[in-house]
Write a structure and sequence with these properties.
Structural class: alpha/beta
Shape: globular
Organism: Zemynaea arenosa
Number of domains: 2
Strand content: 25-35%
Order of helices and strands: EHEHEHEEEHEHEHEEHH
CATH superfamily of the largest domain: Periplasmic binding protein-like II
Distance between the termini: 28 Å
Protein name: Transporter substrate-binding domain-containing protein
CATH topology of the largest domain: D-Maltodextrin-Binding Protein, domain 2
């Protein structure tokens, strides 16, 4: 996967504008994410919907930061092992509750099945497809959800693009993924009419999640900034730019 780093200009400007004698500058936050179009784009001039939301949050908080696009599993590991780190978009589930400081709600995710060969997986009756091979992002919290629902053969991939390759190559019968990511992946293809998407099977709230050295007061600052972005319409405007709704 293409590795991409961003130095957020708002944060850098905040550091350079500190008055003389104000004490040491706040060290930048190291934020990791994965290549998750349309939420995070690792190529091209645009950064992705949730990347832009996080950028705006940090600008409002005058917080310097670097954002790095990495394989998703590595992004998670680094956030739990390095100080002043954060990751997004991370599903908030019980198994992760004590591993992170939950900083700001980002998006309500809806998970669906994506199928190319309906003879191998019937999207209208997913409960009858539990013996089929299901592709999913490595490190996804929804792996546990699939297991609880009774799906027995789960194949992990490093990115949405790799999930798609597994589906096209016949290594899996369906992919389980976030609806906006699934539809974005299909929309890039000339044969998009050949794919089928199920109704949402699970919903989960995604967050900007930080390492535990962030304090509860830090979390309140992030959440207050997020509430202000929602109230003034900035959040919805950013999402609309990528064809998304809150």
């Amino acid at each position: 996967m293409h590795r991409r780093r961003f130095l957020l200009a708002g944060g850098a400007a905040a550091v350079s504008a500190r008055p003389e004698g104000a004490g040491p500058a706040t060290p930048p936050v190291h934020i990791r994410t994965g290549s998750l179009p349309p939420f995070v784009l690792d190529q091209g001039p645009r950064h992705g919907a949730l990347h832009e939301v996080v950028e705006e949050l940090l600008r409002r908080l005058h917080m310097p930061a670097q954002v790095e696009v990495l394989p998703w599993k590595r992004a998670l590991v680094l956030t739990t092992t390095e100080p002043r780190s954060a990751v997004f978009p991370l599903s908030r589930v019980a198994s992760r509750e004590t591993e992170f400081r939950w900083l700001a709600r980002l998006y309500r995710e809806r998970y669906v099945f994506l199928v190319r060969d309906p003879a191998r997986f019937d999207v209208s009756a997913p409960a009858r497809m539990k013996a089929r091979r299901i592709g999913i992002m490595r490190g996804s919290s929804l792996i546990g959800t699939l297991e609880e629902l009774g799906y027995r053969t789960i194949v992990e991939a490093n990115s949405p693009a790799e999930c798609m390759r597994y589906l096209l190559g016949g290594m899996v019968d369906a992919v389980f993924g976030e609806a906006a990511i699934v539809r974005w992946s299909v929309a890039q293809r000339a044969d998009r009419a050949a794919f089928q998407v199920s109704e949402p099977q699970a919903t989960v709230q995604s967050w900007l999640a930080g390492s535990l050295d962030f304090t509860p007061a830090d979390a309140r600052r992030f959440e207050t900034a997020m509430q202000a972005m929602t109230a003034d319409g900035t959040y919805a405007r950013i999402l609309r730019g990528y064809g998304l709704t809150p």
